[in-house]
Predict the 3D structure of the following.
Amino acid sequence: MQRTKSADARYVEVRLANVHLEREERTILEDVNWTIRPGEHWVLAGGNGAGKSQLLKLIAGAVWPTPTGRESRQYRWRREVWPSPFEVQDEIAYVGPERQDKYARYEWNYPVEEVVGTGLYRTDIPLNPLTASDRRKIATVLGRLAVGHLAARRFLTLSYGERRLALLARALASRPKLLLLDELLNGLDEINHARAVRWLERTRNSRLPWILAAHRVEDVPPSATHALVLEKGRVVYSGKLRRAPLERWLNAEHDETVPVVTAQGKRRPRARGFLVRLKNASVYLDEHLALQKVSLEVRPGECWVVHGRNGSGKTTLLRTLYGDHGVAVGGRIERAGIEPGVPLEVFKRRVGLVAPHLQSDHPQHLTVAEVVQSGRHSSIGLNDAPSAADRAAAQRSLAFFGLDELAPRTLRELSYGQLRRVLFARAWVRHPDLLLLDEAFAGVDGPTRRSLKSHVEAMVADGTAVVMTTHHRPEWPDCVTHELELADGQARYCGPVRPSGRRKRGAMK
């Protein structure tokens, strides 16, 4: 540690030089040189697997760089300099999907007020009773984000987007000196997206430095001042935002390494009747009414888009269809082939599911091949050694999604977007009759979104029924047949896709 002059001693300044990171003998980051100064607001861009999340974790101290003898890190704060983040870790706040998924994995279902309060005490879970002063501070932070109404709700009853804003409030409650935001705006509806961007805009004249990883041009806030772009772990641009080639990187649609498929002429025989049907279905989560008297019927070859604000019940609907939530008395759910005495697992083996919580459910030491093989049994991991049929089916699914090279890698080596593609392969491994996609395109780059959409369209053409949730109109597949609009757990519209609902090419949210 040494004393030095700093532009603003109140905030953390970070200097990286020749930083290198390897995982399982694979290079993740190479020769990264970057300085983040107080008053700078950075956008971090790059494709899936470019190293964005790993770079943020490295800055936060959750990941250690691979020694090369040339690298150096400096953290300046309060006119002192340290060669590692250890001494300033409590001053760095990190908001990202992995922290959010951690609450689901460990079932940390505390009231939002208590979750935000952990930011005051810098703990993972509530360990200290909140004082009256704490509660006032928490109310102030939630008010700044316009989500004070969530304070009494339990965290796991919130929608994915609501949880993200609650964790942003937790980070702000800690009064950070450096703020790291990994895909903060993913999964937010239009209103909550505006709330988060509005807070970022208020930092325009703030000396608090922050870094925001993003995959969409519309997620670049006006208050951003600088941009850093990664490609395959190397910095290809670092400097002022106005000169950054963000349109090229964030709106890119073409990438020859990401496969795009077209529907085949031959289709499998299409079953008659419905696959799953809801009738006046209401669902409660911890005494919170999440769905109220929803009715719909999904048939083979249909493609349903479910949309609505955060908290409208979209995820609850999909998990009810899958069988994770029961229907309250007065309503019912029917699944084709499931009669009294037939285990629900029989139905689940005919269903593919891609959802955020699955990214945290699978142990990080599993290989990509093992995760895809587990889809054959609708299990998390494998209870028994994979059969020859399991291995062959997984190999075909990995090839279909262009993931052959990732097969031997462990999940801890993958980016969030790469893992999302793996979950698609896992869902498709049994050629499901029904595919449930919960914000399945969140956290993926432009070429990957285009590729995954083409795979969905090919599956629908082959007779698979798809029910998907999304906040972005451009993510609607061209094959969409029906839509369900939810508001406060109730169906505002349910039926064939409306003419105004069809996506115009190039349209944005």
Summary: Residues 298-326+334-501 form a domain with the Rossmann fold fold (CATH 3.40.50.300). The first helix runs from residue 52 to 60.
